[in-house]
Amino acid sequence: MPDVSKRGVRMPESPIRKLVPFADQAKAKGIKVYHLNIGQPDLPTPRVAIEAIQKIDRHTLEYSPSEGIMSYREKLVQYYHRFEIDVSAKDIIITTGGSEAITYAFLACLDPGDEIIVPEPSYANYTAFAIVAGAVVKTVPSKIEEGFALPPIEQFEALITPRTKGIMICNPNNPTGYLYTQSEMNAIRDLVKKYDLYLFSDEVYREFCYTGAPYISAFHLEGIEENIILVDSVSKRYSECGLRVGALITKNKEVFNNVLKFCQARLSPPLIGQIAAEASLDTPAEYMLEVYNEYLERRNFIVDGLNRIDGVYSPIPMGAFYTVAKLPIDDSDKFCEWLLSNFQYENQTIFMSPAAGFYTTPGLGKNEVRIAYVLKKKDLAVSLKILEEALKVYPGRV
Amino acid sequence: MPDVSKRGVRMPESPIRKLVPFADQAKAKGIKVYHLNIGQPDLPTPRVAIEAIQKIDRHTLEYSPSEGIMSYREKLVQYYHRFEIDVSAKDIIITTGGSEAITYAFLACLDPGDEIIVPEPSYANYTAFAIVAGAVVKTVPSKIEEGFALPPIEQFEALITPRTKGIMICNPNNPTGYLYTQSEMNAIRDLVKKYDLYLFSDEVYREFCYTGAPYISAFHLEGIEENIILVDSVSKRYSECGLRVGALITKNKEVFNNVLKFCQARLSPPLIGQIAAEASLDTPAEYMLEVYNEYLERRNFIVDGLNRIDGVYSPIPMGAFYTVAKLPIDDSDKFCEWLLSNFQYENQTIFMSPAAGFYTTPGLGKNEVRIAYVLKKKDLAVSLKILEEALKVYPGRV
Fold it and tell me: Pairing relation of β-strands A228-233 and A246-249?
C-alpha cells in the first residue's frame, strides 16, 4: 500500500476522544461514568425546533441553496441585531456546523504554510482544521493564575511573520470560559489593523455570559469590518449539536465568494437542520432564560465545589459552560486515565478532559483539566465528591 | 487586506452553477425554465423516511458518534450484501453527504502534490475536493463516439508518476451514464494492483442500471480489497439530497483511522439525516421499482428524442440519470447561456450544463452538454421541443 498520508498522521488525536476506550471499559465493568469531558449539553432542545421537524411533510427532501435557505439567513439578521451585530443576509453563509465554517474560513483565507495565532489553551479542533488547510497554528499561552485573560498583545505581535494571516479567538472561550474585555478586544483590533490580518472569531457561546460584563463581538470593533470572519453555530445555543447547522459571516466579499465556492462543491448544508434552526429563532425568551439560569447555577456550584477541594483551583469562568481547573497531580493525562481504569467511588467515576490537549506548547496544562458543566447539579455534586475522594488516593498526587 | 487565498481562487467555478444568474434573469422576465442542469431528483422521498422524521420526539438533538450511528451502519451492511458487497459495520463511516466522503478520502490518502487519475468527463467537484487536499487531478479522456467507455488502460498507465496515488471512478457514471464492464473493471483492478494505488469508487447511482449489464462494484474486484475507498450517498438513491448523509467504506484500517480523525474533528454527521436514512433502508421494493421504471422510461424517452433532432447525438446511457449529448453548435458554454438569455419558445427555455466544465483538458466537450433527466416525461417532451427549436435559430450553429 502507498504510505498513509502524512496529513492524516499529523492530525492530532482529539483530547476529548482519546480516553473514550477507557470510559467504555469502565462502563463494561458496571461502573457509572459521569461525563464532564464533552460539550454535549444535556438540556432540552427548544420544543419549537422539535415541532418544526415533526411538521416536515415534503414530497422531496431536496438540496438547499449552497449558501443556506434565504428565509433563515434573513431571520438570523434580526437575531444578530439583538446583539448589535450589524450584518445582512448577504454576509451570511449557512454551514454544516461551526466546524465547517472554520474549515472553509481557513481554506478560503489561508494558503499552505500560512500562519494564524491563537491564544492557548484553545479548542483543539482549530489545529485539526488548520491542518486540513495546510496552515500553521502558533500559540500564545494564557495563564490560569490570570484567569486565562488575553496574554499581552505584544506576545502576539512577537509571533508575526510575513506568513501570518490571521488571529483566531473563541469568545466566550472554550475551554476556559473566559470572556474577552473591551480593552482586550481593542488590543486585538489594533493588531489586526496594523498588520492587516484576518480575525477569525468563534462566538458560539455568546448566549452564555454570566458576570454582567459585556459580550464584545468581533463585529463591535470599528475599522476592521472587512477583516472579520465570524463563526457561529446553533449547537450550544439551543442544544442542537446533532443538527449540524452553523454559519460563517463576513463583510469581505472576496472571502465570501471564495468560501461560497467550497460550499458549492459540497452542494448544500443540511435541509432539515436549517428548518429546525430557523424555527429555533422563535424560541421563547423563557426557554433561553431557563437554560441560562441553569448553566449559571451549575457554574457557581461546580466552581465553588472545585475550590473547596484541597489543592484544587478553578478561576471563575465568565461564559460558555466549561472551566479549566488546576489539580494537585503529576499529569492530567495519567490522572484522567487512572480515574477511568483504576478508580471508583461507590462504583462511580468521572471522565474529564486532560487540558494538555488544548495547549500546543509542550508541557503546558499538565496539571489542568477541562470540565464541561453539562450535567445536572446533583450529578455535578457526585462528580465533585468522586474527584475529592480520587485525589486522596491518586498515587501521582503532588 | 491580505491577498485572498490562491486555493480559493484556484477553485473552479461549478459548471452547474455558473449560469444560474442567467436562469434567474430569465425567470425574472417571466420565462419558464426547465432545469436539466442539476442532479436534483424530482421524485418523492420514501414515505418511511418522512415518517421517521415526523416521529422524532427527543429531549435533546445530540451529537451522533463521529463515525455514525451504529444501528444505521449495521443495517447498511445488509443493504450492501444485497449487491454482493461484503463489508462489515467496522468498515463504514457515515459522512455528511458523499461530498464529505470524497473530501476526507482525499485528505486521508493524499499529500499535497500527490496525483490521482480520473477518466473525463467527470463529476466536476472531484477537482474541487482534490484542491482542498492540495492534490492534482490528471485525466484520461473518454469519447462520446465510444459511448464514454473506459479509455484504454494504457492511457492511465502512461500518466503514472511517483506521485500517483490513486484512480477515481464514478460507476455508474455522472455525467455520462456509462456503466463500467467487468473487463474494464478488471483492467482497473490490474493497474491498481500493479502500482499499489488507491481506487476511489463513487457508486452512488448503483440502483440505476438499465441495460441488464451487471453493476460491478469496486468491492467485487479480488485482490485489491485494501486499496478500495468506496463512496456512497442516500441523495440520489432515495431522493434525499437535503439530508446530507453519505458513507465512506474501506477495509484498509490505516485509511479508516485517518479518515476517522477528520470525522472526529467535525464531531458528527447530521443526526436527523441518519435517522431518516436508516428508515429509508426499509423502503418497500415497490417504491424502488417505481423510481427505477420512471428513470428508465425517461432515459428511453430523452435519448430517443435527442437522437431524433437533426445534428444531435446522445449515446445510450446505461445508468445514473444523466446523458452527455453532442450538439451541432460552436460552443456549449455560449449556447447554454444564449438559451437562458436570448431565446424562448412559447415563453419557455431550458437550462443545461455545458459539458466543458466536466472535462479538465481544455477544448474538450465544447459541443457537448450534460442533461439530467430529473423532470417528468411531459416536461422532458417540452424541453426536447425547445432544444429543437433553439437549434434552428442559434447563430452559432455549425
Answer: antiparallel
